Amino acid sequence: MDRTQILLVGLPIFLFFTDIINLFSPSPPPKSSHHNLPQPQQPQFQQPLDFPSQKPSETGPIGAGPIGVGNTVSIDFCTSCSYKGTAVTVKNMLESLFPGINVVLANYPPPLPKRVISKVIPVLQTGIIIAITAGDQIFPRLGVTPPQLYYSLRANKFRSIASTWLLANFVQSFLQSSGAFEVYFNGELVFSKLKENRFPGEFELKELIGKRIGNTHIF
């Protein structure tokens, strides 16, 4: 018998004798589990939470309610300039400083000529891309001789199309942006980014709005 046959015959015999020995051997005593029982936790009595009362500076005269009630702050900003995050931050700040105040966010559109031109840019962009890709069929049917610029653009279609797409998007974004961040208090302009060429500061807005509300004791 070779080694493989010896293993195939001897292994079942070894397992058989092992089962016989385990059958007649005494079983171990069961483990007591009362030592491992979790100890009952004592109930913990929490102290009652003390909610802070409203600060005196957050209210006006007795019975008048929060100091900001009845006042509206309008923030007109350039949405295409990614100013929304700044506008939301200012809104949250004003609502925290002047409880009850109404803060309204709105888009400040660019002048009418820029808006009109920004609508024309996508049309020109699409026309140039179509002319680059299918000019060989379009110009003969129209009976028009292609300009020299067409052949220059056709020399490298991919680069011409990518450049036209990027340039048109940049021009359109520029025309749609107003760069504005205008703050109004009850319809009165209190800060203008178009005039100051900067954003308002936190303390600056706090002073501008607080003076107009008439509650100078908050400073």
TrEMBL record:
Gene3D superfamilies: Glutaredoxin. SUPFAM superfamilies: Thioredoxin-like. GO terms for biological process: cell redox homeostasis. It comes from the Eukaryota. Pfam families: Rdx. Keywords: Redox-active center, Signal. Residues 28-63 are annotated as: Disordered. The keyword Signal applies. InterPro entries: Selenoprotein_Rdx-typ, Selenoprotein_T, Thioredoxin-like_sf. This is SelT-like protein.
